[in-house]
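Hey Z.,

So I finally got round to the magnesium ion thing we talked about over coffee. Here's the setup:
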Amino acid sequence: MILESEYKSRRDKVFKKLAKSSLAVIFSAETTTRSHDTHHPYRQDSNFYYLTGFKEDNAILLFIKSSTKSRTVLFVQKKEKIMELWNGKRLGVKEAKKRFLVDEVYASEDFIKIFKKYARRRKNLYYEQNVKKICVKKIAKTAKSFQTEHDILPLIQKMRLYKSASEIELIRESIAITAKAHHRVMNMRKSGIYEYNLQAEIEHEFKMNAAYSDAYISIVACGNNANTLHYIENSKALVEGELILIDAGCEHNYYASDITRTIPVNGRFSEAQRELYNLVLDTQLQIIRMIKPFVKRSHLQESAERLLTKGMVELGILSGDVKELIKKQKHKKYYPHGIGHWMGIDVHDQAPYRDAKNQEIPLQKGMVLTIEPGLYIDAKDKSVPKKYRGIGIRIEDNILVTKDGCENLSSSIAKSIEEIEMMSKN
Ligand code: ZN
Ligand code: MG
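And the result:
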C-alpha cells in the first residue's frame, strides 16, 4: 500500500524541479471508446496515478509555484446523483479534500477558470506536450502567454526509475499472482487443447486473485508461433512434442509483472529442446548474476549476445568466430531483441534509458528491470540443424537492483528443466 504521505513527497519532489514562478499541469487519462457505445475499462494515466494514487477520470493536478510558496490543487469530478447511478460513485470535492494531502480541491469544471487566474502571474508552464488529450490542447493554447514552456513528463519519468520500498512490495504482490498463473498452466494436462485455453487459465488466475487485468496481452505461442515475437492470436492447437512460450503478467494495484516461461506441451523436453533451453537459461542466470549498481544495460545486452552466440556456435546453429559473428550481427536473426526493460506502473515502465546528455543511465539501487534473453529458430530456416527448427524460447524474470547486487523477484516461478518437468502433468 502506498500512503498519502508518499504521494505528497513525490509531488514535493516535482516542486523542487520546477523553475520559480511556474504552473505545472497533469491530467488524468481519458475514457477510450472500444467501439460504438462501448468503452475500454478505465485505467488511470500512469504518471497521474504516480503523483496522486487517484483512480477517477476527469481529474487534474495543478502545481503552483511562486517565489515564496508552493501549492498543489486537485480538480475532481463533483458528486452528481444521476451520473453516479450510471457510472459509479465519485469521491467528490469534499471527500477528496479529506483524503489527499493537497492544498486545495475544486470541481473539474472550474479548472480553466482557475488555471487562467494563476497563469497571468506565472512565467513558466509545464505540461504533457506529447499527449493528445483534449484538455492538453486547451492548455497549449494558453501557453503563448508564458515565457517558457516545458514538457513535464521527463521530470516525472526520471523519478519513476527508482522504486520505493512500498512500490517494490506492490510489484512483489503482482508477481505472486503471476507466479500462480504460470504454475497453473505448468500443472495442467495440455494435450488436445488450444493456446487460448491456456490464456484463459492464466487470466482466470489473475482475476481470481483480484488482479485488475493482464499488464499486457498474454502471449501463448506453441512451437513455431513463438518465433513471432508479438504473437497474441493465441488461436492454434497445442501440438504434442512442441514447446509453448508463455509471456504473461498481471497488473495488480497499478503495478505490473512480466514473466515468460517456455514449457513442453507434454511435460517433457526433447533432447534438442533441452539443449536450446539450457543455453537460454544459462545465459539468463549469468546475466542476472552480473546485475549490481553502476552496471549498464548495454553491457548486459552485449554479454547476452556473446553467450548466446557462443552457444549457438557450439550447437552448430552458427559457424565461425564468435566476435566476427557478432560484429556482422549474425546473432540478430536468432536473438533480435533487447535484454530487458524497466518495469513498474507500466510493464514497459516510462522511465529514461539515457540522461539529458544522452549518456546511458547505469543501474542503481531501487531500479526494477526484466531480464529476458531468447532464441528463435524459424521452422523454415534451412541453415540450422533440423532438430532445432520451429523452436522459440524466452525466459523472463523481474529483477530488483539492490545495494550490492540484485534480487530476482520472480525466483519462485519454476524455471529449470527439472522444476518444470516435475510440475508438469502429461
Ligand atoms: Zn518483458
Ligand atoms: Mg514479457
